[in-house]
Specification:
The complex is a heterodimer of chains A (428) and B (309). Chain A is α/β, with parallel strands linked by helices. Chain A has two domains: 99 residues, D-Maltodextrin-Binding Protein, domain 2 (3-Layer(aba) Sandwich); 228 residues, no CATH class. Helix content of chain A is 69%, strand content 7%. Chain A starts with a helix and ends with a helix. The radius of gyration of chain B is 24 Å and the shape is elongated. Chain B is 33% helix and 28% strand. Chain B folds into two domains: 157 residues, Rossmann fold; 69 residues, Alpha-Beta Plaits (2-Layer Sandwich), CATH 3.30.70. In chain B, strand 9 and strand 10 form a beta hairpin. Chain B contains ten helices and 14 strands. Chain B has 309 residues and is an alpha/beta fold. In chain B, the strands form three sheets. Chain B has a six-stranded mixed beta sheet with strand order 6-7-8-3-9-10, sandwiched between helices. Classes of the chains: A alpha/beta (428), B alpha/beta (309). At the A-B interface, helix 1 and helix 7 of A face helix 2 of B.
Chain lengths: 428, 309
């Protein structure tokens, strides 16, 4: 046990003291915040450019619908045929040309070099539709005023069975929590799993391995390595959270709240016209099984990480250098990606559906899928416990197999390993 | 004599391949034991079993009379052929780590290291990273890592590879000194000169079997075959050579000594005594040299391996 502790300590200190590790730890949040700011900045620049759009309206009814805005100038072309208009807009380097040929039925075409955004197309269509509908109504002697007065807009209130009010962003909030947890776990597994693997390869290639395992059992070295690396990972992670948090706060204070909002946030914030909605959203977050989520996050996090790290160590032991790891990587990456897909598609759609349930029991996918299921539906405790039991039992199984491969692999040099070879090692 | 290490009927298989086939060796306490054999004979497999890196499929190892257990790792020091240390770790830190894995406390490890660093002229290396050292320097660190916990049994796999002659000598002397202090040494090597110089016992492993083992002296005794090297000063070397009785199977060889002597070796038939051969040869010229050609370890090695097929 003392020796295991020694190994964990060495692995941890070795990782943490590594220059690249230190640089990455402190530079990553800077880069992250920097990129966020850059994106915000670029979006604002993009929004500042004014688009010029020519309008050729042969009906004469629709042209008044298009008024200059901050971002768009309309140039009205009159008494020209469409061919001349196209040439003219092209030479003038307008963003596009809107050609309205006929009313009843309305026939309109938008000419441009770049495909216009969906949003813009919808905007134009909406304006034309509104005008055309109104014209139709008037043509049938229906008063617009009546229409306006009789219009009803319902705001559907959402409540769950227990009577708690939820906001319409509820699904979105759940996805953010579940998806965030699942995605985080995946990133952690890939980054630190690779780190464990590299460190196994390093020990193998610089041949210190024989000296170490003449002092301790290989399984101790393996467990020590995985634990030490994961502790280093958690340290890095916590520093990121703290540094990132401080940076974000400092920057928001300096630059003002507007600069920190990405365009997506603006839309979301726009919906929150009053404090009630905000309150509802906070309610939503509080309504999530937060404690359950946090506890499960740690249990699945540790379990999932150990499961994959054991596989990564076995791969590291089987090869002589990092380039040889490629053929073994697919079976590791595949279940991870699969879990994320299952999470974002099946779980979002129906958290208690067969696909979501099955994948939340399979140990290779359960950490991510179950973490994503928890915020969405009331998952029974027995379900979670069974899934965890399966996960932790399979960790022992996988670690046992991995240690067999590890034990043989670390002493095997200069041999190209393949799947058949690995299978043979299991029987040594 | 008490044996520090005994291997009894050790068998090790990798799949269909038998790496060790009922191997028996006995390493007496205080000896320098040469473990010889061609590449792939099974030496490293045996050493790994002694170090508990791998487990044998059959047989048992006794260390100081007790069956080998995990606690014994503190009593064994091992320097593998493929040397290795952490490249980016500082020398001092690394040595302490490895010593603590062998069961030393931090304070003990530090004291031992200071002694050895001093002794091998390595002061000032403590805070250097291994990758800043030359190969020879790294080998010295490796040597210290092997011996610093003062084990009863030291196993060196090709200990002199990578050392320049000066440092090789230094290490050789240190090994012999450790032997004098009571350690038992197992030596695995291809370099027969060093076996000749240092070992008092040998075992020759070929194709997974021990084909020869015992005291070096006894083994050599066993391989004596009545061959003698002779030098004569003659009036005419060619005529003298032709005149040597054919039963001696004389063959010209080169011997150090005077330039124009007739140097050759003979093999005495069973019924011919040394004095009779002297009688025969002195008739042909003035005898300046007559000595038994004791087989070198190298000759024994090659001969045995060839016979073994």
């Amino acid at each position: 046990m003392d020796k295991l502790w020694l190994i964990i300590k060495r692995e941890y200190l070795n990782k943490v003291r590594n220059r690249t590790f230190i640089i990455m730890t402190f530079v990553s949040p800077l880069i992250f915040v920097g990129v966020a700011l850059l994106v915000g900045f670029l979006t604002s620049i993009n929004n500042d450019t004014v688009r010029e759009i020519a309008v050729l309206d042969e009906t004469g009814d629709y042209a008044p619908l298009f008024k200059d805005t901050k971002r768009t100038d309309y140039i009205f072309i009159e008494n020209e045929d469409i061919k001349t208009a196209i040439t003219a807009s092209e030479t003038a380097d307008y963003y596009g040309l809107l050609y309205i040929k006929d009313k009843r039925p309305v026939e309109a075409t938008f000419y441009s070099d770049d495909a216009p955004s969906m949003e813009y197309i919808n905007d134009i269509e909406e304006r034309i539709n509104k005008k055309a509908t109104e014209d139709n109504l008037i043509a049938r002697n229906i008063s617009l005023q009546v229409i306006q007065e009789t219009k009803v807009e319902t705001d559907l209130k959402l409540q769950n069975y227990t009577g708690v009010q939820t906001s319409k962003a509820n699904g979105w909030i759940k996805m953010a929590f579940g998806g965030g947890a699942g995605y985080l776990l995946m990133m952690f597994i890939i980054i630190y799993g690779n780190m464990v693997m590299r460190s196994v390869i390093e020990e193998k290639t610089n041949r210190i391995i024989e000296i170490i395992i003449s002092s301790v059992k290989p399984i101790y070295l393996m467990i020590g390595k995985i634990t030490g690396t994961s502790l280093a990972g958690i340290t890095q992670f916590l520093i990121w959270v703290v540094v990132g948090g401080i940076l974000f706060t400092v920057l928001s204070v300096i630059l003002g709240p507007e600069a920190m909002q990405s365009p997506g946030n603006e839309v979301a914030m726009g919906q929150l016209e009053n404090m009630d909605k905000m309150q509802l959203m906070i309610n939503d977050v509080m309504q999530l099984p937060l404690l359950k989520l946090v506890i499960c996050f740690f249990i699945y996090f540790i379990g999932g990480y150990f499961l994959y790290a054991a596989i990564y160590t076995a791969i590291g032991a089987a090869v002589d250098n990092e380039t040889d790891t490629q053929q073994f990587m697919l079976p590791v990456i595949l279940p991870l990606i699969l879990s994320i897909y299952v999470g974002f598609f099946s779980v979002m759609e129906s958290p208690h559906g067969t696909v979501a349930v099955i994948f939340s029991y399979i140990p290779l996918t359960s950490p991510i899928v179950m973490l994503m299921r928890i915020p969405f539906g009331d998952i029974a405790y027995w379900e979670i416990i069974v899934s965890m039991l399966l996960l932790y039992t399979s960790i022992f199984g996988v670690a046992w197999l991995a240690s067999k491969i590890y034990r043989v692999g670390i002493l095997m040099y200069g041999k190209k390993t393949n799947w058949k070879e690995l299978y043979k090692w299991l029987k040594y | 004599m008490k044996n520090t290490l005994e291997a009894r009927n050790i068998t090790k298989r990798y799949g269909d391949f038998t790496a060790l086939n009922h191997v028996n060796i006995a390493v007496p306490k205080g000896s320098v034991y040469g473990l010889l054999g061609p590449n792939g004979a099974g030496k490293t497999s045996l050493i790994r079993i002694i170090n508990q890196i791998t487990m044998p499929d059959g047989g048992e190892i006794l260390l100081n009379g007790e069956p080998l257990e995990p606690k014994h790792i503190a009593q064994i020091g091992y320097m593998p052929e493929e040397r290795g240390l952490y490249k980016s770790m500082k020398v001092g830190e690394q040595c302490i780590y490895l010593a603590m894995l062998k069961g030393l406390t931090k304070a003990e490890a530090k004291a031992k290291l200071e002694y050895w660093f001093d002794r091998l002229g390595m002061q000032g290396w403590w805070n250097k990273k291994l990758q800043e050292l030359s190969k020879g320097m790294a080998q010295k660190v490796q040597f210290i890592v092997t011996v610093m916990h003062e084990p009863d049994l030291l196993i060196f796999d090709e200990p002199f590879s990578g050392f320049d002659p000066v440092n090789a000598n230094l290490i050789k002397d240190e090994i012999l000194k450790l032997r004098d202090q009571g350690a038992t040494i197992i030596f695995s090597t291809h370099r027969m000169e060093s076996v000749e110089e240092m070992c008092d016992h040998i075992a020759l492993i070929n194709k997974s079997n021990v084909v020869l083992s015992g005291k070096l002296n006894d083994v050599k005794q066993q391989f004596r075959n009545r061959e003698y090297a002779v030098s004569l000063i003659t009036p005419n070397n060619d005529q003298a050579m032709a005149a040597i009785p054919s039963m001696y199977n004389a063959m010209q060889i080169d011997l150090a000594g005077l330039d124009n002597t007739l140097d050759f070796k003979i093999k005495l038939p069973e019924e011919v005594s040394i004095s009779q051969s002297l009688n025969d040869l002195t008739k042909l010229g003035e005898l300046t040299h007559y000595s038994e050609m004791i087989p070198s370890v190298n000759d024994i090695f090659i001969k045995t391996v060839k016979q073994d097929g």
